[in-house]
Design a protein that fits this description.
This protein is mainly alpha-helical. The chain contains twelve helices and six strands. It holds the Pfam family DUF3537.
């Protein structure tokens, strides 16, 4: 199937029906999807509303001012104030040193990850915009299968954010209630009491929600971009299933996907590497502090540390797993192309043998496809083809074998092998720290 035929087939799916059905159809499924305001049927409406409520709307000068002011207040000023032990006084006993130390350890990585997320989103919105960031402009070249699948992924995007944020939020609320009911806030020239504690409770909790949400939003956007490319690889796989697809069309489609994978890798590589450094440093600092502490660990003095570690690792694993999935699909295309090339070659050999046995008669060839669970025998008639088709298919297989990388970090494919390497590195550091602690205790 030609690429133009696929596009024309997609357009023909929407040419029938009355105008009412057309305007009720989601915008991503329309062939003439252009920049528009937030309509009821606009799949980006939820994104725009979420960005506005999170003070991340950079579409206007006022929105930028509010965004930067909110970031300075909730990601810089409030964490600094909340990490100073002189503002807190325990109502019953002296505030444990470990409580303030754990609190300080939590504030730094949360603010650092929020800075990375805010800086990444600011650069994205300034250079690309939301539609170009999500590759919506390029959807006109995709099939209806990819468009519908991407529409579903857009609908599910914030579910992943909610699955991480909401449980952590409830645990954080419980911890802050216990903390501020035990600790009295003391400020110069300000009377202490319930109103001041309530204001501090709201500011600290709002700061946590803001910083966590900014970091997780970038993770969700990255995963959403990976899901789009996975859908395109599935569409490319369908081009092989017919056993009669043209190698040139498959090559052009793979080049288009490969280009967008390179763009995605270039956009998110700084965020992924910097997040890895911050999370690794914070986790090992927490490990050293916990092992060095002599006091009992409880929900009061280390609850923040538990929530912070869970959110950090969940968001980062969301990025790594999305990148590993798409890299696995990209690496598997070479095997699919090799099987397709073998099937086509055997079929053409059968055609040539039929010519020798019966002049002018082209028998029907069978191509067995067993990649999917619901695969069945497909019977395809092959017309006489140019001898160069074999060289074209062989060149396509060689090309896919040498261009099988998905998401890369400065040339290194973010695949399962790299994940195993990262795990081995982190595990070695943990065991080394534990061995030093055991030696010191002895």
């Amino acid at each position: 199937m030609k690429t133009n035929d696929i596009m024309n087939g997609c357009k023909s799916d929407f040419d029938h029906g009355d105008d009412t059905d057309y305007f009720n159809e989601p915008l991503l499924l329309r062939p003439s999807y252009a920049r528009s305001t937030s309509l009821l049927c606009d799949e980006l409406r939820s994104f725009r509303i979420s960005l506005r409520w999170c003070a991340l709307d950079h579409s206007s000068g006022t929105g930028k001012f509010v965004s930067y002011l909110t970031f300075i207040l909730l990601a810089v000023f409030v964490p600094i104030i909340s990490s100073l032990p002189v503002w807190f006084q325990d109502l019953s006993i002296a505030l444990p040193t470990e409580t303030t130390a754990f609190n300080l350890l939590v504030q730094f990585p949360e603010s650092a990850l929020a800075f990375l997320g805010f800086f990444t989103l600011s650069c994205f919105f300034r250079r690309y915009g939301l539609r170009q960031l999500l590759f919506l402009d390029a959807l006109q070249q995709d099939t209806t299968f990819v468009r519908r699948g991407y529409t579903r992924e857009l609908d599910k995007a914030f579910r992943y954010l909610a699955c991480i944020l909401l449980p952590s939020f409830f645990v954080e609320v419980v911890h802050k209630i216990i903390f501020f009911s035990t600790v009295k806030i003391s400020l110069p020239y300000v009377s202490s009491g319930f109103p001041l504690n309530s204001i501090a409770f709201v500011l600290v909790l709002g700061s946590w929600v803001y910083r966590t949400g900014v970091f997780l939003l970038v993770c969700v956007l990255f995963r959403l971009t990976c899901e789009l490319q996975i859908l395109r690889f599935q569409g490319l796989h369908k081009m092989f299933e017919g056993c009669g697809s043209d190698g040139g069309d498959i090559f052009q489609e793979h080049v288009r996907i490969r280009k967008q994978l390179a763009i995605t890798s270039h956009r998110y590589r700084f965020f992924i590497i910097a997040s890895l450094v911050v999370i690794t440093a914070s986790q090992f600092a927490a490990l050293l502090m916990v092992l060095a502490s002599k006091s009992d660990k409880n929900f009061f003095n280390s609850g923040d540390l538990l929530v912070c570690s869970t959110v950090q690792l969940s968001g980062f694993f969301l990025c790594l797993l999305g990148a590993a999935r798409i890299t696995h699909r990209a690496q598997g295309m070479a095997a699919v192309a090799s099987r397709w090339h073998m099937s086509m070659t055997c079929a053409m050999a059968g055609v040539e043998q039929g010519k020798q046995e019966d002049d002018g008669f082209l028998p029907v060839s069978t191509c067995n496809e067993t990649d999917s669970d619901d695969s069945s025998d497909m019977f395809i008639s092959f017309a006489a083809q140019h001898p160069s088709n074999f060289q074209t298919r062989q060149a396509l297989v060689s090309y896919l074998q040498h261009n099988n990388k998905g998401i890369t970090l400065f040339g290194y494919a973010l695949d399962r092998g790299l994940l195993h390497t990262l795990f081995a590195f982190e595990f070695s550091l943990v065991m080394w720290i534990l061995s030093k602690v055991v030696v010191l205790n002895d």
